[in-house]
Design brief:
The protein is of the alpha+beta class. It is about 35% helix and about 30% strand. An eight-stranded antiparallel β-sheet has the order 14-13-10-11-12-15-20-18, sandwiched between helices. It has a five-stranded parallel β-sheet with strand order 3-2-1-4-5, sandwiched between helices. A four-stranded antiparallel β-sheet has the order 6-9-7-8. Helix 1 packs across helix 10 and helix 3 (about 90-95) runs antiparallel to helix 4. The longest helix is centred in the middle third of the chain and has 19 residues, at about 175-195. Bound molecules: adenosine-5'-diphosphate. Adenosine-5'-diphosphate (ADP) binds near residues 167 and 203.
Length: about 450
């Protein structure tokens, strides 16, 4: 049977999906905005359709326009990637209703996990530990609110239930800040997400960010592909990711992995998903579940040899697929550096034309990127240019291999965070794997 898939995304993840489809012998349709005619994957797709002006709202977030493209090209399924509409339950539902299989979980699952409080209350039922806090509606009465927070204990973090992308959060260290902070967080949440609902969590002071990759077949079977450590972050945005996460308490980890797989089996989870946790003092605390492919999925693929994107597509299309935990093995260590078009000092985005460049390559090195010499980096979209991924028998060798890959990788014409990566990779705390999620901002960047 032959299939055709529409790739509802751009950049490196569109290219990644294209590669998976080609290997599976699946025909592809690329969609692009008027500012994106030069995207690399469009040279290799079978068909392509312009879906609107450069502004994401009018193109990659424009559901009617994407569905029209799907109708025009008569595709079987739609691959959402990450960002844009990947976690939009209405999009998933409309795809399915229009007769195009949404490659991912059901719209109901996306909806449950998309609301942070609902997700938290939901996973608790499956014995997944969450951050202590208060996830009911907050009382209007100030003294009642203060009492609730005092019971949790300062510092706390106020989080918008509809928040995402590291936005909609505010730390409160004492009672004097509480009311003002709540007012500001609610206002910001309303402006950014159209929903001012906020909940409270204990602020975990020095955690690591650990996540569990799972894959489910939608029929009650699911497996995990181990852990990733994404603690190297700035403003809650991941910069370097690794697999597996090291130095974890193995008893707690095994219980957690079982609980994650059990949850996915029980809810007939379909496709790839990630459960994210904070980890401190041997305890895991669930923070959210992403019901899509993650940017950092290659590190897991590198240590397992399991092609997650191909699995997503095969499961969605009902192509013969057997998920068996016993077949999953883990080899060595993998690291990913996200190369962004941004100033390495100020972190300001730096769009513009790439005049010349060299890629990185060699044994144990993977390079996922859509850029090329002459490519114009658009100011309209995410600043991610390339993901350089290394794999080696040990973490130390994976780091050395990354330094060599970064040395080869070179971009002229625009600024990138290349030099920041080079500095992090020779930093003692990073090499010793002693960093927490605050390390980059609170310590490393202040050292200079
Ligand atoms: P988003 O959906 O915006 O990515 P998350 O809930 O996943 O939001 O949180 C993103 C990041 O915010 C985490 O990786 C962590 O750095 C920080 N964070 C979230 N909740 C807490 C908490 N309770 N204590 C400390 N840090 C937190």
């Amino acid at each position: 049977m032959s299939f055709k898939v529409l790739i509802a995304n751009r950049g490196e993840i569109a290219l990644r999906a294209l590669r998976a489809c080609r290997e599976l012998g699946i025909k592809t349709v690329g969609v692009y905005s008027e500012g994106d005619r030069d995207l690399k994957h469009l040279r290799f797709v079978d068909e392509s359709v312009c879906i609107g002006p450069p502004s994401p709202i009018e193109s990659y977030l424009n559901i009617p326009s994407i569905l029209s493209a799907a109708e025009l090209t008569e595709v079987d399924a739609i691959y959402p990637g990450y960002g844009f509409l990947a976690e939009n339950h209405e999009f998933a539902e409309q795809c399915n209703k229009s007769g195009f299989k949404f490659i991912g979980p059901s719209s109901e699952t996306i909806k449950t996990m998309g609301d942070k409080i609902t997700a938290k209350n939901f996973v608790e039922k499956f014995n997944i530990p969450t951050v202590p806090g208060y996830s009911k509606d907050l009382p209007d009465d100030e003294s009642k609110l203060k009492k609730i927070v005092n019971e949790i204990g300062y510092p706390i973090i106020l989080k918008a239930t509809a928040g995402g992308g590291g936005r909609g959060m505010r730390v409160v260290t004492n009672e004097n800040e509480l009311l003002d902070s709540l007012r500001i967080t609610k206002q910001e949440a309303l402006n950014a997400f159209g929903n001012d609902k906020v909940y409270i969590e204990k602020f975990i002071q020095k955690p690591r960010h650990i996540e569990v990759q799972i894959v489910g077949d939608g029929k009650g079977n699911a497996i995990h592909l181990g852990t990733r450590d994404c603690s190297l972050q700035r403003r809650h945005q991941k910069i370097i990711e690794e697999a597996p996460a090291l130095d974890l308490d193995l008893d707690s980890l095994n219980i957690l992995l079982d609980a994650c797989v059990n949850l996915c089996k029980k809810i007939n989870y379909e496709g790839a998903g990630t459960l994210e946790f904070l980890y401190e003092n041997k305890e895991f605390y669930f923070i959210e579940m992403n019901t899509r492919i993650q940017v950092e999925h290659p590190v897991t693929e590198m240590i397992t040899g399991f092609d997650i994107v191909k699995a997503q597509i095969k499961i969605a299309l009902g192509i013969n697929y057997d998920l068996d935990q016993k077949l999953i093995t883990f080899k060595g260590h993998s690291i990913e550096c996200r190369i962004n078009a941004e100033d390495p000092e100020t972190f300001e985005p730096c769009p513009g034309q790439i005049t010349r460049m060299h890629t990185a390559g060699g044994f144990g090195i993977r390079y996922d990127s859509h850029i090329y010499g002459g490519y114009n980096v658009s100011p309209f979209y995410d600043s991610l240019l390339a993901k350089i991924i290394t794999q080696a028998n040990s973490r130390k060798t994976a780091i050395k291999r990354m330094l060599s890959a970064l040395d080869e990788f070179y971009v002229e014409g625009i600024k990138t965070n290349h030099s920041l990566h080079e500095k992090i990779l020779i930093d003692e705390i990073f090499i010793e794997n002693k960093h927490t999620i605050n390390y980059l901002e609170k310590e490393f960047l202040k050292k200079k």
